[in-house]
Amino acid sequence: MRREDLPRGLRPFVDQEGRLIQWPSRFKLQQMAAALLATRFEPGRNYVEKEVNAVLVEWHTFGDWALLRRVLCDWLFLDRESDCSRYWVRPGAAERIDEQLGPAGARA
């Protein structure tokens, strides 16, 4: 997703490569940032924690992948086994992403 296709309020928190460079302080922008990160995960694929961390490390620059992993699960973008052995994109995550970032067609 190109930076210019993001909601205007989120753009200052994303670099030209599409990486999150700072965690926003405003809740609404945090939700948008989490939705952006959720787009980096492939629906229907299972991830181990190390793979989730690797995706998050690739798509943010401020070094707090644990916060981001927790937020993605708490805000229903990702789900996980109770022992954290497996993660996956939750059903309905696409709709939550669209609510935060706009319809996928508008983001293309």
The N- to C-terminal Cα distance equals 7 Å
Percent helix: 40-55%
Per CATH, the architecture is Orthogonal Bundle
Rounded average pLDDT: 93
The number of E-state strands comes to: 2
InterPro entries: DUF2087 (IPR018656)
Organism: Eiseniibacteriota bacterium
Protein name: DUF2087 domain-containing protein
Domain DUF2087: 19-89
Task: Explain this structure.
The protein has five helices and two strands; from the N terminus they run αααββαα. The protein has 108 residues and is mainly alpha-helical. The chain has a single domain, classed as Arc Repressor Mutant, subunit A, CATH 1.10.10. α1 (27-38) packs across α4 and α2 crosses α3 (65-74). The chain is globular. It starts with 26 loop residues before the first helix and ends with a helix. The model has no long low-confidence stretch (mean pLDDT 93).
Summarize it:
Helix content is 42%, strand content 6%. It is mainly α and 108 residues long.
Structure keywords:
single chain; 108 residues; mainly alpha; Arc Repressor Mutant, subunit A; two-stranded antiparallel sheet; 42% helix; 6% strand; DUF2087
Layout of strands and helices, then pairs:
Elements (H helix, E strand, L loop, with lengths): L26 H12 L10 H10 L6 H10 L3 E3 L6 E3 L3 H9 L2 H4 L1
Antiparallel strand pairs: 1-2
Helix pairs in contact: 1-4, 2-3
Protein name: DUF2087 domain-containing protein
InterPro entries: DUF2087 (IPR018656)
